[in-house]
Amino acid sequence: MAVELLWTGPKGGPVLVLAHGAGAAMDSVWMNRFCELLAERGIRTARFEFAYMAARRTGTRKPAPRADLVLDEYRAAVAAVHEVLAASGADRPVAIGGKSFGGRVASMLAEELFEAGSVSALVCLGYPFHPPGKPDRLRTEHLAELRVPTLICQGTRDPFGTREDVTSYALSPAIRIQWLDDGEHEFKPRAKISGHTHAEHLATAADAVAAFLRAPSS
Question: Into which CATH architecture does domain 6-214 fall?
Answer without folding.
Answer: 3-Layer(aba) Sandwich (3.40)
